[in-house]
Design brief:
Elements: H1 7-15, H2 21-41, H3 44-60, H4 72-90, H5 110-127, H6 132-142, H7 148-155, H8 159-182
Helix pairs in contact: 1-2, 2-3, 2-4, 2-5, 3-4, 4-5, 6-8, 7-8
Length: 183
């Protein structure tokens, strides 16, 4: 597809199966989805195979995609989560040494860890829509665990600026979440 498409136009083009839209969607979203799948299935080769399943399935079902309900990225991640869980459930379980305490316990539900990863991915996608200054403050606060005073100290920003940017960023995130929930 000629030129860079905004996300809404790409989503509609994908839904309509327009020429080049699959390639554009893959170029834009495959890296993030592959990162998610690599962590979810814990094997790069398997993740690449599952990634192909995700885009094949999405293209086959493109007419069912509703841009009014979710973004293309979110829809693709839902498919990726489903395919990752399917992959994990299909795997032949590794033999366990029953002499090791806890070895006989059932492994955790593969869907639980993938849900956590989707939550992290979704948050990262929302944060990426903020200004760089706002995103940086949030990352320092929530990923690095720094207080607002520590952020001000490390960045050289006045504490009031840190607080304003954090408040503005959190308000914008709430608005984005509300828009997504209302769609």
């Amino acid at each position: 597809m000629g030129g860079e498409l905004d996300e809404e136009r790409l989503a509609q083009a994908f839904r309509d199966r327009r020429e080049g839209s699959l390639d554009a969607a893959y170029a834009r979203h495959a890296p993030a989805i592959l990162g998610f799948l690599s962590r979810a299935v814990r094997d790069r080769g398997s993740a690449e195979d599952v990634l192909q399943e995700v885009f094949t399935d999405a293209w086959r079902r493109a007419d069912r995609f509703d841009p009014g309900r979710a973004s293309l990225a979110t829809w693709l991640m839902v498919i990726a989560r489903s395919r990752a869980v399917d992959h994990l459930r299909r795997r032949v379980p590794e033999p366990r040494d029953t002499s090791i305490p806890g070895a006989h316990e059932e492994p955790e539900d593969p869907g639980a860890s993938t849900d956590a990863l989707i939550g992290q991915w979704r948050f990262a996608a929302l944060v990426s829509t903020l200004s760089e200054d706002e995103a940086r403050v949030l990352r320092m606060r929530f990923h690095l665990g720094l207080s607002q005073s520590e952020i001000a100290e490390q960045t050289g920003m006045p504490i009031g600026t840190v607080k304003t940017r954090m408040t503005r960023a959190l308000t914008r995130l709430r608005s984005l979440l509300d828009e997504e929930a209302g769609a």
